């Protein structure tokens, strides 16, 4: 059960839940026939004993671990990461689950696809979700569009100029209520197709399914 942060005159919120995959030797790296993303590795660069301070070198790709895809990830000439305002990545979210009706957008700025066990939606329902106008979708688990190729969702979002945060810790996301608050904070990279991202979410007291 989530712990309450404290009483007062402000709306009571619950503690933040980290939805980010740990970045260690167990981190899965995307691969398909004939292709694999860059491997993730941490190397010692210098040590306190020799240099007076410790530094590690990171090897990783822009789509390593929990990350955000800019449209340029799937569309040649698409928007790169810096085109997205940070204000689009912080605020209220509303949840869309496979097999359920679309939610009302309300005050939400993020559409959260909570599908820890995977799922499938019709093309018509996907198009209706896209028409809600969210500039950022956040996906826990995976979602396919019925009758379309496996990366259709990614390519359709990119063509529409939508940024996608994905590869979250799906089990951590499973109990989240349908509405709450979310922060998705990528590295401030310029000109890239994406970046690793720290994702945190919390419910507000009284909000549930």
Automatic annotation (TrEMBL):
One GO MF term: arylformamidase activity
InterPro entries referenced in this protein's UniProt entry, alphabetically: KFase/CYL, KFase_sf
Domain of life: Bacteria
GO biological process: L-tryptophan catabolic process to kynurenine
Pfam families assigned: Cyclase
PANTHER family in UniProt: CYCLASE-LIKE PROTEIN 2
Name of the protein described by the UniProt record: Cyclase
Species the sequence originates in: Gemmobacter aquaticus
